[in-house]
């Protein structure tokens, strides 16, 4: 199906497949992790359901899932940033995606709601890494020194917002405490499955900060590998559910 876009007045655009989305100042610009997460979710979901795009940013994940037909009825989306919520609403309107978008921390906007699928894309990177990365320019990252704080909170609270056969999808970025996040997942869900793994070379903007990354790695806060003169990190995507 060909997607028809309306006029896009914003100067900053993000292209994801056939989607062309506005990304305003103060709104997180999606990375390669977004694509890995989307492909994993797309492959896993077999029937449409009620979906929450948690940490929606510009709305790319939820809108893309709506375009492939796995969102039943309204798309639900939220982000701590009011700018992100406004951006999501504009982008959803452009692609005729009916959305309920709210601003608030994690599940605060969804006290009475339950979902079939929750797709989590909140910050999962060490705050020290975020400060030296090209990804968080003008966007706050309050995920702790080991990057696991927000993701662990999502995992612990997600069960209360999932229907009986519901699933939580979440990426783990190795610029965080991978084991801490996985332990939380296994403590809160009976089934935790790895859906995708992707390795990435260090962005050139971070090459001058390798010493910081090595120190964080040695202290157990993040995981990196060094091969053939390159620094590598990875994204894993998991699904968690209870039978």
UniProtKB/TrEMBL annotation:
Transmembrane segments: none annotated. It holds the Pfam family MTS. InterPro entries: SAM-dependent_MTases_sf, Small_mtfrase_dom. Residues 33-119 form the Methyltransferase small domain. It comes from the Bacteria. Gene3D superfamilies: Vaccinia Virus protein VP39. This is Methyltransferase small domain-containing protein. It comes from candidate division WOR-1 bacterium RIFOXYC2_FULL_46_14.
């Amino acid at each position: 199906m060909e997607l028809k876009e309306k006029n896009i007045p914003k100067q900053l655009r993000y292209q994801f497949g056939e989607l062309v989305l506005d990304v305003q100042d103060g709104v997180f610009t999606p990375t390669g992790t977004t694509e890995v997460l989307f492909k994993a979710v797309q492959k896993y979901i077999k029937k449409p359901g009620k979906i929450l795009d948690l940490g929606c940013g510009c709305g790319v994940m939820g809108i893309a899932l709506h375009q492939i037909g796995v969102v039943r009825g309204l798309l639900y989306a939220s982000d701590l940033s009011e700018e992100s919520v406004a951006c999501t609403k504009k982008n959803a309107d452009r692609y005729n995606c009916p959305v309920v978008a709210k601003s608030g921390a994690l599940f605060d906007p969804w006290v009475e709601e339950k979902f079939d699928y929750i797709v989590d894309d909140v910050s999962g990177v060490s705050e020290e890494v975020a400060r030296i990365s090209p990804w968080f320019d003008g966007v706050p990252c309050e995920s702790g020194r080991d990057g696991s704080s927000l993701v662990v909170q999502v995992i612990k609270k997600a069960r209360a917002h999932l229907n009986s056969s519901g699933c939580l999808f979440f990426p783990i970025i190795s610029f965080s405490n991978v084991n801490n996040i996985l332990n939380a997942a296994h403590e809160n869900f009976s089934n935790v499955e790895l859906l995708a793994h992707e390795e990435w070379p260090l962005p050139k903007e971070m090459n001058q900060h390798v010493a910081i990354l090595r120190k964080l790695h040695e202290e157990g806060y993040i995981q990196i590998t060094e091969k053939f003169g390159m620094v590598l990190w990875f994204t894993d995507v998991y699904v968690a559910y209870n039978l």
